[in-house]
Amino acid sequence: MHLKILELEKNKVRMVLVEEKHTFMNLLAEEILNDSAVNVARYLIEYQFSDPELLVTTDGSKDPITAIREACDRISRSCDELITQVGSA
Q1: How would CATH label the architecture of 2-88?
Q2: Per residue in 37-67, pLDDT tens?
């Protein structure tokens, strides 16, 4: 995955996730919103074949990049748990 940071402030980040689609972006935005420090987590795909832009804002108690990293870690752990459960079935 390739990222392009468009804007980075203390409590706001706008970035483009090159070649990602709705499936991952929906999951990521939903998981970021599970963080109580996050005010906004949304993405926009302007055209069918354009790269999505992610916007995350926080209440200032947490850096938005940290919120994204933590959400990615939670997603990864959930996937690992699912793989373990499927392997046990």
Answers
A1: 2-Layer Sandwich (3.30)
A2: 999 999 998 888 889 999 999 999 999 999 9
